[in-house]
Write a structure and sequence with these properties.
11 helices, seven-stranded parallel beta sheet, alpha/beta, about 325 residues, four-stranded mixed beta sheet, homodimer
Chain lengths: ~325, ~325
């Protein structure tokens, strides 16, 4: 069975989905929908670029619509709007707003008899699965999540809003000593400062006051003031050459004990050269699963917690049992 | 809802299940069934010890029967025998025979309208899940599994069968350089010898020829001849004091690339003080899931690949979305 998917929104994530489809023979990309003028959107493949409005009637021939947008303003509107018309998936990642987003998407999907999966990706997504499996198996223990080394878009944006800053990139870096203490089973109580450091690469506007900018970064509430921060001033050329990739990753650990007192450590980690390309690869695997759930007559919203792992794979159950179990 | 479980077979695994139940408030251990004389079986809890024959009529009040036995001879008989009478779970771990075992258990479970989950544990089990998720997300890449540091029961038994050996324990140890090469994304082609070393602690019978025993170990086909092996001769007291724990663990890695060529590494690892206690904890979490699948009207055999992760947790879906996603 071929799954026909379409993309709504052609940014880094949409481009990643377009790329991931080429690695999955059973998935066909049938359209890239955009809210911009389609004539202005150059895509990497021969996929037709179509106006988003064409989705409105709910009559496009699509098994799963992958909604690629930001969690702040795009997805809270787009996913509920389309969940009644198509099977959809998004990567909504504002953890605190997941319950509200789920409720809105679930109502629309049930009404339309469609399947919607929210918050797919790696965190939320694969990291959430690591937390759930580990907590279910070791009910008594401590959870630790470390992010990085990787670019934090939110922190980079925050630096760019400081007067005198022309451009900036911020890396979140786990503190190796903290990670090692967790791995040794010491179950440390870690403060924010003890878990991560933040490294900033900043390009100044001409004539800007470097010391003032550094102060503004280091003391920025919530974003930086609780961390040890390094600020490096570099040229735009160096930023473009050395810091234009989008690596990320991290570590999810659960350190627990069975009732005898014996210690156990479960660790899941990702090291990603491209955060959006990897997230897109997760979306495509879950799109396959959604098509199967829809074909089985399911409807409503779900998350990675609700999807049997076998549905992610192009292989049949007997092959999976023989080769992956 | 309380899930009533019972244990069939009271060895290391059965004892681990008995222990794991104490960490799960929604699970009640209602019986320990044994093929030995129940009067001779001392258990750690106040659970009634009952003759296995009492299970035969299929009338015991049990939601899930956890079958704790060896994969060589016990489980191929026991799991199909009880799968038609009770919802069951086992930790069958002879990878090559999984398809045949699945077929036998599936036929019995379908006939009886029961749910049966085979091959739960960590390998097969959690490691299988790590392989499946990682392969589904990164279809182009290489898989690596390293085991240890841990006691291999099979290799310890093989040493004990050598004339002149009184007792022995064998540790399987991943080669750090190989693991690091994989983590660096080098996608190495690794021989058996390059992946693991084997360390043996051997107690000789009085008057036995140490050199001959060492030769016999090192040259043993399949078990040792393809590995770098260290043999240490120690006293029974030292073996008992230093090597009676049952630690194990390992690493599952997938190193892959998205279509752009960007590299990604997914790693899952376990470090376990007690192999049987951890395996038992996995069995108990999946017993909860089986009870839920049975309550939802499912029947037939399944594996960890078929179980939605949320079913493993005592928490409700809305709580999981709010706190684990």
């Amino acid at each position: 069975m071929t799954t026909k998917i379409a993309i709504l929104g052609y940014g880094n994530l949409g481009r990643g989905v377009e790329m991931a489809v080429t690695q999955n023979d059973d998935i066909e990309l049938v359209g890239i929908y955009t809210r911009r003028d389609p004539a202005t959107v150059k895509v990497a493949s021969a996929t037709p670029v179509l106006p988003a409005a064409q989705l409105d009637a709910g009559t496009e021939d699509i098994d799963v619509l992958i909604i690629c947008g930001g969690s702040a303003t795009d997805l809270p509107k787009l996913t509920p709007a389309y969940a009644g018309k198509y099977n959809v998936i998004d990567s909504f990642d504002t953890h605190a707003n997941i319950p509200a987003h789920f409720a809105a998407v679930d109502a629309a999907a049930r009404e339309g008899g469609k399947v919607a999966l929210i918050s797919a990706g790696w965190d939320p997504g694969l990291f959430s699965l690591a937390r759930l499996y580990a907590n279910s198996i070791l009910p008594q223990g401590n959870d630790y999540t470390f992010w990085g080394k990787g670019i934090s878009q939110g922190h980079s944006d925050a630096i760019r809003r400081i007067p005198g800053v022309r451009d900036a990139k911020q890396y979140t870096i786990p503190v190796p000593e903290a990670l090692e203490a967790v791995r040794r089973g010491e179950n440390p109580q870690l403060t924010t400062r003890e878990k991560h450091t933040r490294e900033c690469f900043v390009v100044l506007e001409e004539g800007a006051d470097a010391a003032a900018v550094a102060e503004a970064i280091i003391n920025m509430p919530n974003y930086f003031d609780e961390y040890d921060v390094t600020v490096n001033f570099i040229s735009q050329e160096e930023l473009n050459e050395q810091h234009s990739a989008m690596p990320h990753g991290g570590f999810v650990l659960r350190s627990g004990a069975t009732a005898s007192g014996n210690q156990h450590l479960i660790e899941y980690s990702l090291k990603l050269d491209s955060n959006p390309e990897f997230t897109s690869s997760v979306l495509v695997a879950y799109a396959r699963a959604i098509a199967r759930l829809a074909a089985a007559g399911k409807s409503g919203a779900c998350t990675v917690f609700d999807v049997p792992p076998a549905l992610l794979s192009p292989y049949q159950p007997d092959y999976l049992r023989a080769h992956f179990l």
